[in-house]
Amino acid sequence: MSRPIEDYALIGDTQTAALVSTEGSIDWLCLPRFDSGACFAALLGEPEHGRWLLAPAGGPPPQVRRRYREGTLVLETEFTTPEGVVRVVDCMPPRDRTPDVIRVVEGVKGQVPMHLELIIRFDYGSVVPWVTRDGAELHAVGGPDALSLYTPVKMHGRHLTTVADFTVSEGQRLPFILRWYPSHESPPAPLEPMMALADTEAWWREWSSRCTYQGPWREPVLTSLMTLKALTYAPTGGIVAAPTTSLPERLGGVRNWDYRFCWLRDATFTLYALLLSGFHEEAKAWRDWLLRSVAGDPAKIQIMYGVAGERRLTEASLDWLPGYEGSGPVRTGNAAFRQFQLDVFGELMDSLFQARRAGIAAERHAWSMTLVLMDFLEAVWKQPDEGLWEVRGPRQHFTHSKMMAWVAFDRTVRMVERFGNTGPVEHWRKARDTLHAEICERAWDARRGAFTQAYGSSVLDASLLLMPLVGFLPPTDPRVVGTVHAIERELMQDGLVRRYHTHETEDGLPPGEGAFLACTFWLADNYVLQGRVDEAKALFQHMLELRNDVGLLAEEYDPVAKRQLGNFPQAFSHVGLVNTAYNLTEHLPSPALHRQASNEE
Are strands 331-332 and 316-317 parallel, antiparallel or unpaired? Predict the structure, then answer.
Protein backbone atom coordinates (compact mmCIF):
# COMPACT_ATOMS: atom_id res chain seq x y z
CA MET A 1 0.00 0.00 0.00
CA SER A 2 3.08 2.26 0.05
CA ARG A 3 2.48 5.74 -1.23
CA PRO A 4 5.33 7.82 -2.65
CA ILE A 5 7.40 9.33 0.14
CA GLU A 6 6.64 12.80 -1.20
CA ASP A 7 2.91 12.14 -0.66
CA TYR A 8 3.37 12.74 3.07
CA ALA A 9 3.16 15.86 5.20
CA LEU A 10 4.56 16.34 8.71
CA ILE A 11 2.80 17.34 11.90
CA GLY A 12 4.52 17.35 15.28
CA ASP A 13 4.62 18.60 18.85
CA THR A 14 8.45 18.96 19.21
CA GLN A 15 8.70 15.59 20.96
CA THR A 16 7.40 13.27 18.25
CA ALA A 17 5.85 13.58 14.80
CA ALA A 18 3.34 11.99 12.46
CA LEU A 19 3.23 11.58 8.69
CA VAL A 20 -0.10 12.24 6.96
CA SER A 21 -0.67 11.03 3.40
CA THR A 22 -2.53 12.81 0.60
CA GLU A 23 -5.35 10.31 1.04
CA GLY A 24 -5.90 11.47 4.64
CA SER A 25 -4.18 8.57 6.40
CA ILE A 26 -1.73 8.92 9.30
CA ASP A 27 0.62 6.08 8.38
CA TRP A 28 3.46 6.77 10.83
CA LEU A 29 3.41 7.89 14.45
CA CYS A 30 5.69 6.92 17.33
CA LEU A 31 4.47 7.65 20.85
CA PRO A 32 5.41 9.19 23.18
CA ARG A 33 8.85 10.06 21.66
CA PHE A 34 10.45 10.07 18.24
CA ASP A 35 12.26 6.83 19.05
CA SER A 36 9.33 5.06 20.74
CA GLY A 37 7.47 2.18 19.14
CA ALA A 38 5.07 3.19 16.38
CA CYS A 39 1.33 2.82 16.93
CA PHE A 40 0.77 3.50 13.21
CA ALA A 41 3.36 1.72 11.04
CA ALA A 42 1.54 1.26 7.73
CA LEU A 43 4.29 3.37 6.13
CA LEU A 44 6.53 0.31 6.41
CA GLY A 45 3.91 -2.31 5.64
CA GLU A 46 0.18 -2.56 5.16
CA PRO A 47 -2.87 -0.94 6.80
CA GLU A 48 -2.98 -3.91 9.17
CA HIS A 49 0.24 -2.59 10.75
CA GLY A 50 -1.59 0.49 11.97
CA ARG A 51 -3.00 3.65 10.46
CA TRP A 52 -5.69 6.30 10.93
CA LEU A 53 -7.64 7.07 7.76
CA LEU A 54 -10.06 9.99 7.63
CA ALA A 55 -11.23 10.72 4.08
CA PRO A 56 -14.20 10.87 1.69
CA ALA A 57 -16.00 7.55 1.39
CA GLY A 58 -16.24 5.61 -1.88
CA GLY A 59 -16.71 7.12 -5.31
CA PRO A 60 -13.97 8.25 -7.69
CA PRO A 61 -10.69 9.44 -6.17
CA PRO A 62 -11.17 13.02 -4.94
CA GLN A 63 -9.11 15.96 -6.08
CA VAL A 64 -6.68 16.77 -3.26
CA ARG A 65 -5.10 20.08 -2.37
CA ARG A 66 -2.94 20.59 0.73
CA ARG A 67 -1.23 23.40 2.52
CA TYR A 68 0.11 24.41 5.89
CA ARG A 69 -1.65 27.37 7.43
CA GLU A 70 0.75 30.27 7.06
CA GLY A 71 3.61 30.18 9.53
CA THR A 72 2.44 26.92 11.12
CA LEU A 73 2.57 23.14 10.90
CA VAL A 74 -1.22 23.01 11.03
CA LEU A 75 -2.06 20.97 7.94
CA GLU A 76 -5.13 21.43 5.78
CA THR A 77 -6.08 18.72 3.28
CA GLU A 78 -8.99 19.69 1.03
CA PHE A 79 -10.89 16.97 -0.85
CA THR A 80 -13.14 17.86 -3.77
CA THR A 81 -15.71 15.17 -4.57
CA PRO A 82 -18.85 14.97 -6.76
CA GLU A 83 -20.90 15.62 -3.59
CA GLY A 84 -18.96 18.69 -2.47
CA VAL A 85 -15.78 19.83 -0.73
CA VAL A 86 -14.49 18.77 2.67
CA ARG A 87 -11.39 19.81 4.58
CA VAL A 88 -9.44 17.79 7.16
CA VAL A 89 -7.31 19.88 9.52
CA ASP A 90 -4.50 18.03 11.32
CA CYS A 91 -2.14 19.14 14.07
CA MET A 92 -0.31 18.04 17.20
CA PRO A 93 -0.59 20.63 20.01
CA PRO A 94 2.63 21.53 21.85
CA ARG A 95 2.94 18.95 24.59
CA ASP A 96 1.36 19.34 28.00
CA ARG A 97 1.28 16.05 29.92
CA THR A 98 0.57 13.74 27.01
CA PRO A 99 0.95 13.76 23.21
CA ASP A 100 -2.22 14.49 21.25
CA VAL A 101 -3.33 14.38 17.63
CA ILE A 102 -6.24 16.61 16.69
CA ARG A 103 -8.15 16.10 13.45
CA VAL A 104 -11.10 18.28 12.51
CA VAL A 105 -13.39 17.53 9.55
CA GLU A 106 -14.85 20.72 8.11
CA GLY A 107 -17.66 20.85 5.58
CA VAL A 108 -16.80 23.43 2.92
CA LYS A 109 -19.44 22.82 0.26
CA GLY A 110 -22.33 20.37 -0.18
CA GLN A 111 -22.66 17.17 1.83
CA VAL A 112 -19.73 14.75 1.68
CA PRO A 113 -19.88 11.13 2.93
CA MET A 114 -16.81 10.39 5.06
CA HIS A 115 -15.12 7.21 6.27
CA LEU A 116 -12.95 6.68 9.34
CA GLU A 117 -10.72 3.65 9.76
CA LEU A 118 -8.61 3.44 12.92
CA ILE A 119 -6.20 0.53 13.20
CA ILE A 120 -4.10 0.80 16.37
CA ARG A 121 -1.11 -1.54 16.50
CA PHE A 122 1.42 -0.81 19.21
CA ASP A 123 5.13 -1.67 18.97
CA TYR A 124 5.49 -1.18 15.22
CA GLY A 125 2.40 -3.10 14.25
CA SER A 126 3.01 -6.14 16.41
CA VAL A 127 0.59 -5.60 19.35
CA VAL A 128 -3.18 -5.66 18.85
CA PRO A 129 -4.67 -3.68 21.76
CA TRP A 130 -7.72 -4.42 23.87
CA VAL A 131 -10.34 -1.84 22.92
CA THR A 132 -13.19 -0.65 25.15
CA ARG A 133 -15.69 2.18 24.93
CA ASP A 134 -16.78 4.74 27.50
CA GLY A 135 -19.54 6.88 26.04
CA ALA A 136 -18.07 8.97 23.23
CA GLU A 137 -14.53 7.89 24.08
CA LEU A 138 -12.67 4.80 22.91
CA HIS A 139 -9.76 3.31 24.88
CA ALA A 140 -7.09 0.98 23.49
CA VAL A 141 -4.59 -0.73 25.82
CA GLY A 142 -1.64 -2.96 24.95
CA GLY A 143 1.38 -3.51 27.21
CA PRO A 144 2.74 -0.17 28.47
CA ASP A 145 0.82 1.90 25.90
CA ALA A 146 -2.71 3.23 25.81
CA LEU A 147 -4.61 5.52 23.45
CA SER A 148 -7.92 7.25 23.85
CA LEU A 149 -10.01 8.63 20.98
CA TYR A 150 -12.78 11.12 21.59
CA THR A 151 -15.27 12.19 18.92
CA PRO A 152 -18.99 12.92 18.71
CA VAL A 153 -19.10 10.66 15.64
CA LYS A 154 -20.53 7.22 16.30
CA MET A 155 -17.94 4.47 15.82
CA HIS A 156 -18.03 0.68 15.91
CA GLY A 157 -15.61 -2.23 15.71
CA ARG A 158 -15.12 -4.47 12.70
CA HIS A 159 -12.38 -7.10 12.25
CA LEU A 160 -10.04 -5.59 14.88
CA THR A 161 -10.56 -2.15 13.34
CA THR A 162 -12.56 0.85 14.53
CA VAL A 163 -14.67 2.33 11.73
CA ALA A 164 -17.22 5.08 11.23
CA ASP A 165 -19.26 6.32 8.29
CA PHE A 166 -20.80 9.76 8.52
CA THR A 167 -21.70 12.78 6.43
CA VAL A 168 -20.38 16.31 6.90
CA SER A 169 -22.36 19.29 5.65
CA GLU A 170 -21.26 22.78 4.70
CA GLY A 171 -20.33 24.78 7.80
CA GLN A 172 -20.16 21.71 10.05
CA ARG A 173 -17.08 20.82 12.13
CA LEU A 174 -16.50 17.37 13.59
CA PRO A 175 -13.47 16.92 15.90
CA PHE A 176 -11.39 13.81 16.65
CA ILE A 177 -8.86 13.80 19.50
CA LEU A 178 -6.32 10.99 19.93
CA ARG A 179 -4.30 10.97 23.18
CA TRP A 180 -1.51 8.64 24.32
CA TYR A 181 -0.99 7.82 27.99
CA PRO A 182 0.84 5.14 30.02
CA SER A 183 -1.49 2.16 30.34
CA HIS A 184 -1.04 2.01 34.13
CA GLU A 185 -2.43 5.54 34.51
CA SER A 186 -5.95 6.91 34.18
CA PRO A 187 -6.85 8.39 30.80
CA PRO A 188 -6.29 12.15 30.54
CA ALA A 189 -9.28 14.43 30.27
CA PRO A 190 -10.15 15.28 26.64
CA LEU A 191 -8.98 18.57 25.27
CA GLU A 192 -11.39 21.17 23.98
CA PRO A 193 -10.54 20.48 20.32
CA MET A 194 -11.25 23.82 18.66
CA MET A 195 -9.45 25.74 21.39
CA ALA A 196 -6.46 23.37 21.19
CA LEU A 197 -6.37 23.81 17.41
CA ALA A 198 -6.44 27.60 17.75
CA ASP A 199 -3.74 27.51 20.45
CA THR A 200 -1.52 25.32 18.26
CA GLU A 201 -1.88 27.68 15.33
CA ALA A 202 -1.08 30.67 17.56
CA TRP A 203 1.94 28.88 19.06
CA TRP A 204 3.47 28.18 15.65
CA ARG A 205 2.76 31.68 14.38
CA GLU A 206 4.44 33.25 17.40
CA TRP A 207 7.47 31.00 16.87
CA SER A 208 7.61 31.70 13.12
CA SER A 209 7.38 35.46 13.71
CA ARG A 210 10.87 35.31 15.23
CA CYS A 211 12.41 34.26 11.89
CA THR A 212 14.72 37.07 10.76
CA TYR A 213 15.31 35.87 7.19
CA GLN A 214 14.06 38.45 4.70
CA GLY A 215 14.85 37.54 1.13
CA PRO A 216 13.50 36.02 -2.06
CA TRP A 217 13.21 32.53 -0.56
CA ARG A 218 11.40 33.27 2.70
CA GLU A 219 8.71 30.60 2.21
CA PRO A 220 11.09 27.64 1.68
CA VAL A 221 13.42 28.93 4.40
CA LEU A 222 10.62 29.28 6.94
CA THR A 223 9.15 25.87 6.04
CA SER A 224 12.59 24.31 6.52
CA LEU A 225 13.07 26.04 9.87
CA MET A 226 9.63 24.87 11.05
CA THR A 227 10.64 21.36 10.00
CA LEU A 228 13.81 21.64 12.11
CA LYS A 229 11.74 22.88 15.04
CA ALA A 230 9.36 19.94 14.64
CA LEU A 231 12.36 17.56 14.65
CA THR A 232 13.64 19.06 17.91
CA TYR A 233 13.09 17.08 21.09
CA ALA A 234 12.08 20.06 23.22
CA PRO A 235 12.99 18.70 26.68
CA THR A 236 16.68 18.38 25.73
CA GLY A 237 17.28 20.43 22.58
CA GLY A 238 18.43 17.42 20.56
CA ILE A 239 17.42 17.41 16.88
CA VAL A 240 16.67 14.08 15.21
CA ALA A 241 17.92 13.47 11.68
CA ALA A 242 14.40 12.41 10.65
CA PRO A 243 11.25 11.14 12.38
CA THR A 244 11.27 7.84 10.47
CA THR A 245 13.18 4.61 10.20
CA SER A 246 13.97 2.37 7.24
CA LEU A 247 12.68 4.49 4.38
CA PRO A 248 15.02 3.14 1.69
CA GLU A 249 17.85 4.86 -0.13
CA ARG A 250 17.08 2.45 -2.97
CA LEU A 251 13.63 0.96 -3.54
CA GLY A 252 13.74 -2.75 -2.82
CA GLY A 253 17.25 -2.46 -1.35
CA VAL A 254 18.78 -2.94 2.09
CA ARG A 255 20.11 0.59 2.70
CA ASN A 256 17.38 1.21 5.27
CA TRP A 257 18.42 2.90 8.50
CA ASP A 258 16.87 4.30 11.66
CA TYR A 259 17.31 8.08 11.66
CA ARG A 260 15.36 8.94 14.84
CA PHE A 261 18.58 9.94 16.60
CA CYS A 262 20.83 12.99 16.78
CA TRP A 263 24.04 13.09 14.73
CA LEU A 264 27.06 15.19 15.66
CA ARG A 265 27.90 15.57 11.95
CA ASP A 266 24.93 17.96 11.62
CA ALA A 267 26.12 20.23 14.41
CA THR A 268 27.70 23.27 12.78
CA PHE A 269 25.41 23.52 9.76
CA THR A 270 22.40 23.28 12.09
CA LEU A 271 23.84 25.90 14.41
CA TYR A 272 24.26 28.34 11.53
CA ALA A 273 20.73 27.76 10.24
CA LEU A 274 19.27 28.53 13.66
CA LEU A 275 21.54 31.42 14.64
CA LEU A 276 21.28 33.33 11.38
CA SER A 277 17.49 33.01 11.43
CA GLY A 278 17.10 34.50 14.90
CA PHE A 279 16.52 31.30 16.86
CA HIS A 280 19.25 31.73 19.48
CA GLU A 281 17.34 29.83 22.14
CA GLU A 282 17.15 26.72 19.95
CA ALA A 283 20.81 27.12 18.95
CA LYS A 284 21.90 27.29 22.58
CA ALA A 285 19.75 24.26 23.46
CA TRP A 286 21.40 22.33 20.59
CA ARG A 287 24.88 23.39 21.79
CA ASP A 288 24.03 22.33 25.34
CA TRP A 289 22.70 18.97 24.10
CA LEU A 290 26.00 18.40 22.30
CA LEU A 291 28.03 19.08 25.43
CA ARG A 292 25.91 16.84 27.66
CA SER A 293 25.92 14.00 25.15
CA VAL A 294 29.69 13.82 24.62
CA ALA A 295 30.56 14.34 28.31
CA GLY A 296 32.77 11.69 29.86
CA ASP A 297 35.52 9.45 28.52
CA PRO A 298 36.69 10.90 25.16
CA ALA A 299 37.42 7.37 23.96
CA LYS A 300 33.70 6.70 24.20
CA ILE A 301 32.55 9.65 22.07
CA GLN A 302 29.93 8.53 19.53
CA ILE A 303 28.82 9.82 16.15
CA MET A 304 25.17 9.86 17.27
CA TYR A 305 23.08 9.75 20.44
CA GLY A 306 19.47 9.39 21.47
CA VAL A 307 17.28 12.45 21.90
CA ALA A 308 18.18 12.71 25.59
CA GLY A 309 21.80 11.70 25.02
CA GLU A 310 21.28 7.93 25.22
CA ARG A 311 24.28 5.94 24.04
CA ARG A 312 23.05 2.38 23.51
CA LEU A 313 21.23 2.47 20.17
CA THR A 314 21.29 -1.27 19.56
CA GLU A 315 20.22 -2.21 16.05
CA ALA A 316 17.52 -4.84 15.51
CA SER A 317 15.36 -5.99 12.59
CA LEU A 318 11.55 -6.15 12.76
CA ASP A 319 10.81 -9.25 10.68
CA TRP A 320 7.02 -8.83 10.81
CA LEU A 321 7.18 -5.61 8.78
CA PRO A 322 7.78 -6.08 5.02
CA GLY A 323 9.28 -2.61 4.63
CA TYR A 324 8.48 0.34 2.41
CA GLU A 325 7.69 -1.10 -1.05
CA GLY A 326 9.28 -4.35 0.10
CA SER A 327 12.56 -2.68 1.11
CA GLY A 328 13.76 -4.78 4.00
CA PRO A 329 14.91 -5.19 6.60
CA VAL A 330 13.06 -2.70 8.76
CA ARG A 331 15.53 -1.62 11.44
CA THR A 332 15.28 0.02 14.84
CA GLY A 333 18.41 1.34 16.47
CA ASN A 334 21.53 2.04 14.45
CA ALA A 335 24.72 -0.02 14.72
CA ALA A 336 26.73 2.93 13.39
CA PHE A 337 26.71 4.34 16.92
CA ARG A 338 29.65 2.02 17.60
CA GLN A 339 31.70 3.36 14.70
CA PHE A 340 34.86 5.42 15.04
CA GLN A 341 34.67 8.68 13.09
CA LEU A 342 37.27 11.39 13.38
CA ASP A 343 35.00 14.05 11.89
CA VAL A 344 32.91 14.32 15.07
CA PHE A 345 35.79 16.07 16.84
CA GLY A 346 35.90 18.74 14.16
CA GLU A 347 32.13 19.19 14.18
CA LEU A 348 32.06 19.55 17.95
CA MET A 349 34.93 22.05 18.13
CA ASP A 350 33.61 24.06 15.21
CA SER A 351 30.13 24.27 16.69
CA LEU A 352 31.54 25.45 20.04
CA PHE A 353 33.67 28.05 18.29
CA GLN A 354 30.88 29.32 16.05
CA ALA A 355 28.48 29.51 19.01
CA ARG A 356 30.98 31.72 20.86
CA ARG A 357 31.46 33.90 17.76
CA ALA A 358 27.68 34.36 17.62
CA GLY A 359 27.54 35.57 21.21
CA ILE A 360 26.34 32.42 22.99
CA ALA A 361 28.06 32.40 26.36
CA ALA A 362 30.53 29.61 26.98
CA GLU A 363 29.27 26.75 29.10
CA ARG A 364 31.18 26.57 32.38
CA HIS A 365 32.90 23.23 31.80
CA ALA A 366 33.14 23.31 28.01
CA TRP A 367 36.81 24.28 27.82
CA SER A 368 37.93 21.65 30.32
CA MET A 369 36.11 19.08 28.21
CA THR A 370 37.73 20.51 25.06
CA LEU A 371 41.23 20.00 26.49
CA VAL A 372 40.51 16.35 27.28
CA LEU A 373 38.97 15.71 23.87
CA MET A 374 41.88 17.33 22.04
CA ASP A 375 44.40 15.22 23.97
CA PHE A 376 42.52 12.15 22.81
CA LEU A 377 42.25 13.38 19.21
CA GLU A 378 46.00 13.93 19.07
CA ALA A 379 46.49 10.28 19.99
CA VAL A 380 44.08 8.89 17.38
CA TRP A 381 43.96 11.17 14.32
CA LYS A 382 46.47 9.05 12.42
CA GLN A 383 44.15 6.03 12.59
CA PRO A 384 41.72 5.03 9.82
CA ASP A 385 37.99 5.30 10.51
CA GLU A 386 34.54 4.54 9.06
CA GLY A 387 34.09 8.08 7.75
CA LEU A 388 31.24 10.54 7.37
CA TRP A 389 29.07 8.12 5.37
CA GLU A 390 29.31 5.37 8.03
CA VAL A 391 30.56 2.71 5.65
CA ARG A 392 30.18 -0.85 6.84
CA GLY A 393 33.26 -1.94 4.96
CA PRO A 394 36.90 -1.73 6.11
CA ARG A 395 38.20 1.41 7.78
CA GLN A 396 40.13 3.84 5.59
CA HIS A 397 42.05 7.09 5.90
CA PHE A 398 39.10 9.14 4.65
CA THR A 399 40.01 12.61 3.44
CA HIS A 400 36.95 14.25 4.98
CA SER A 401 37.74 12.69 8.36
CA LYS A 402 41.31 13.99 8.32
CA MET A 403 40.08 17.42 7.20
CA MET A 404 37.67 17.59 10.12
CA ALA A 405 40.44 16.59 12.51
CA TRP A 406 42.30 19.59 11.06
CA VAL A 407 39.20 21.70 11.78
CA ALA A 408 39.28 20.56 15.42
CA PHE A 409 42.87 21.74 15.85
CA ASP A 410 42.20 24.94 13.93
CA ARG A 411 39.15 25.92 15.97
CA THR A 412 40.79 25.26 19.32
CA VAL A 413 43.68 27.50 18.21
CA ARG A 414 41.12 30.17 17.25
CA MET A 415 39.38 29.87 20.61
CA VAL A 416 42.68 30.60 22.35
CA GLU A 417 43.46 33.50 20.03
CA ARG A 418 40.02 35.07 20.05
CA PHE A 419 38.53 34.30 23.45
CA GLY A 420 41.56 34.05 25.71
CA ASN A 421 41.27 30.35 26.53
CA THR A 422 44.48 28.73 27.72
CA GLY A 423 45.96 25.60 26.24
CA PRO A 424 48.95 24.18 24.34
CA VAL A 425 48.30 26.43 21.35
CA GLU A 426 51.74 26.02 19.74
CA HIS A 427 51.33 22.26 19.95
CA TRP A 428 47.92 22.49 18.29
CA ARG A 429 49.27 24.78 15.57
CA LYS A 430 51.96 22.23 14.78
CA ALA A 431 49.43 19.39 14.63
CA ARG A 432 47.16 21.52 12.43
CA ASP A 433 49.98 22.28 10.00
CA THR A 434 51.11 18.65 9.91
CA LEU A 435 47.59 17.50 9.11
CA HIS A 436 47.12 20.09 6.40
CA ALA A 437 50.34 19.12 4.66
CA GLU A 438 49.56 15.41 4.91
CA ILE A 439 46.08 15.79 3.42
CA CYS A 440 47.34 17.94 0.55
CA GLU A 441 49.98 15.34 -0.25
CA ARG A 442 48.25 12.00 0.35
CA ALA A 443 44.65 12.81 -0.72
CA TRP A 444 45.58 14.66 -3.92
CA ASP A 445 45.39 12.80 -7.22
CA ALA A 446 47.52 14.81 -9.65
CA ARG A 447 46.49 12.59 -12.57
CA ARG A 448 42.83 13.57 -12.34
CA GLY A 449 43.47 16.97 -10.76
CA ALA A 450 41.23 16.39 -7.72
CA PHE A 451 41.19 15.34 -4.11
CA THR A 452 39.92 11.81 -3.57
CA GLN A 453 37.77 10.01 -1.03
CA ALA A 454 40.69 8.51 0.91
CA TYR A 455 44.47 8.45 0.95
CA GLY A 456 45.73 6.58 -2.10
CA SER A 457 42.24 6.19 -3.54
CA SER A 458 41.05 7.15 -7.01
CA VAL A 459 37.41 7.44 -5.90
CA LEU A 460 35.63 10.80 -5.74
CA ASP A 461 33.48 11.82 -2.79
CA ALA A 462 31.02 14.73 -2.46
CA SER A 463 32.20 15.39 1.10
CA LEU A 464 35.24 17.01 -0.53
CA LEU A 465 32.94 19.92 -1.40
CA LEU A 466 33.26 20.90 2.26
CA MET A 467 36.95 21.81 1.91
CA PRO A 468 36.34 25.51 1.18
CA LEU A 469 33.22 25.63 3.36
CA VAL A 470 35.20 24.79 6.52
CA GLY A 471 38.17 26.96 5.51
CA PHE A 472 40.63 24.17 4.73
CA LEU A 473 41.53 25.74 1.38
CA PRO A 474 40.36 28.91 -0.38
CA PRO A 475 37.41 28.31 -2.74
CA THR A 476 39.44 29.53 -5.75
CA ASP A 477 42.45 27.35 -5.00
CA PRO A 478 43.17 25.40 -8.22
CA ARG A 479 42.95 22.13 -6.29
CA VAL A 480 39.46 23.01 -5.01
CA VAL A 481 38.36 24.17 -8.47
CA GLY A 482 39.67 20.93 -9.97
CA THR A 483 37.85 18.84 -7.35
CA VAL A 484 34.58 20.67 -8.01
CA HIS A 485 34.95 20.09 -11.75
CA ALA A 486 35.65 16.39 -11.19
CA ILE A 487 32.56 16.03 -9.01
CA GLU A 488 30.49 17.83 -11.66
CA ARG A 489 31.76 15.40 -14.30
CA GLU A 490 31.53 12.15 -12.37
CA LEU A 491 29.09 12.40 -9.47
CA MET A 492 26.32 14.52 -10.99
CA GLN A 493 23.21 13.22 -12.69
CA ASP A 494 20.36 15.47 -13.84
CA GLY A 495 21.82 18.33 -11.80
CA LEU A 496 22.05 16.36 -8.53
CA VAL A 497 25.14 15.15 -6.67
CA ARG A 498 25.69 11.61 -5.44
CA ARG A 499 27.78 11.00 -2.32
CA TYR A 500 30.08 8.60 -4.17
CA HIS A 501 29.70 5.77 -6.65
CA THR A 502 28.50 2.84 -4.55
CA HIS A 503 30.01 0.33 -6.98
CA GLU A 504 33.47 1.87 -6.42
CA THR A 505 33.50 2.29 -2.64
CA GLU A 506 33.68 -0.79 -0.45
CA ASP A 507 30.93 0.25 1.95
CA GLY A 508 29.78 -3.26 2.89
CA LEU A 509 26.45 -3.01 1.04
CA PRO A 510 25.04 -3.80 -2.42
CA PRO A 511 25.45 -0.84 -4.80
CA GLY A 512 22.73 1.64 -5.67
CA GLU A 513 21.19 4.72 -4.06
CA GLY A 514 19.77 8.11 -4.97
CA ALA A 515 21.43 11.52 -5.05
CA PHE A 516 22.16 12.91 -1.58
CA LEU A 517 20.38 16.26 -1.41
CA ALA A 518 22.67 17.96 1.11
CA CYS A 519 25.62 17.39 -1.24
CA THR A 520 23.88 19.32 -4.01
CA PHE A 521 23.38 22.26 -1.65
CA TRP A 522 27.13 22.08 -0.88
CA LEU A 523 27.87 22.32 -4.60
CA ALA A 524 25.68 25.43 -4.85
CA ASP A 525 27.62 26.90 -1.91
CA ASN A 526 30.88 26.26 -3.77
CA TYR A 527 29.47 28.02 -6.80
CA VAL A 528 28.72 31.06 -4.65
CA LEU A 529 32.24 31.12 -3.18
CA GLN A 530 33.76 30.79 -6.66
CA GLY A 531 31.67 33.62 -8.07
CA ARG A 532 29.44 31.34 -10.13
CA VAL A 533 26.35 32.94 -8.64
CA ASP A 534 23.98 32.44 -11.59
CA GLU A 535 24.78 28.72 -11.65
CA ALA A 536 24.26 28.58 -7.88
CA LYS A 537 20.83 30.19 -8.18
CA ALA A 538 19.80 27.83 -10.99
CA LEU A 539 20.91 24.80 -8.98
CA PHE A 540 19.13 26.08 -5.88
CA GLN A 541 15.93 26.62 -7.85
CA HIS A 542 16.20 23.06 -9.16
CA MET A 543 16.42 21.83 -5.56
CA LEU A 544 13.36 23.85 -4.56
CA GLU A 545 11.41 22.16 -7.35
CA LEU A 546 12.15 18.75 -5.80
CA ARG A 547 10.24 19.61 -2.62
CA ASN A 548 6.79 18.10 -2.26
CA ASP A 549 3.58 20.11 -2.30
CA VAL A 550 4.05 21.25 1.31
CA GLY A 551 7.76 22.05 0.96
CA LEU A 552 9.38 18.92 2.45
CA LEU A 553 12.53 17.06 1.38
CA ALA A 554 13.75 13.55 2.10
CA GLU A 555 17.39 12.55 2.40
CA GLU A 556 17.84 11.58 -1.26
CA TYR A 557 16.22 11.83 -4.69
CA ASP A 558 16.06 9.34 -7.54
CA PRO A 559 16.63 11.41 -10.72
CA VAL A 560 15.47 8.51 -12.92
CA ALA A 561 12.23 7.57 -11.15
CA LYS A 562 11.68 11.22 -10.11
CA ARG A 563 10.94 10.21 -6.52
CA GLN A 564 12.18 11.16 -3.09
CA LEU A 565 14.13 8.46 -1.24
CA GLY A 566 15.35 7.87 2.29
CA ASN A 567 14.06 8.99 5.65
CA PHE A 568 11.63 11.88 5.58
CA PRO A 569 11.65 14.73 6.19
CA GLN A 570 15.41 14.93 6.55
CA ALA A 571 16.89 17.61 8.81
CA PHE A 572 20.21 17.68 6.93
CA SER A 573 18.45 18.46 3.62
CA HIS A 574 16.48 21.32 5.17
CA VAL A 575 19.56 22.68 6.97
CA GLY A 576 21.32 22.73 3.60
CA LEU A 577 18.41 24.62 2.06
CA VAL A 578 18.48 27.30 4.74
CA ASN A 579 22.23 27.83 4.61
CA THR A 580 22.34 27.98 0.81
CA ALA A 581 19.50 30.51 0.79
CA TYR A 582 21.58 32.72 3.10
CA ASN A 583 24.67 32.23 0.92
CA LEU A 584 22.66 33.43 -2.08
CA THR A 585 20.97 36.40 -0.40
CA GLU A 586 23.37 39.28 -0.95
CA HIS A 587 22.40 41.55 1.95
CA LEU A 588 22.48 38.78 4.60
CA PRO A 589 25.35 36.98 6.38
CA SER A 590 26.76 34.04 4.43
CA PRO A 591 27.44 30.86 6.43
CA ALA A 592 29.93 29.70 3.80
CA LEU A 593 31.92 32.94 3.89
CA HIS A 594 31.72 33.16 7.68
CA ARG A 595 32.79 29.59 8.34
CA GLN A 596 35.56 29.39 5.75
CA ALA A 597 36.96 32.67 7.09
CA SER A 598 37.47 31.13 10.55
CA ASN A 599 41.10 30.31 9.79
CA GLU A 600 41.80 33.82 8.50
CA GLU A 601 41.09 35.67 11.74
Answer: antiparallel
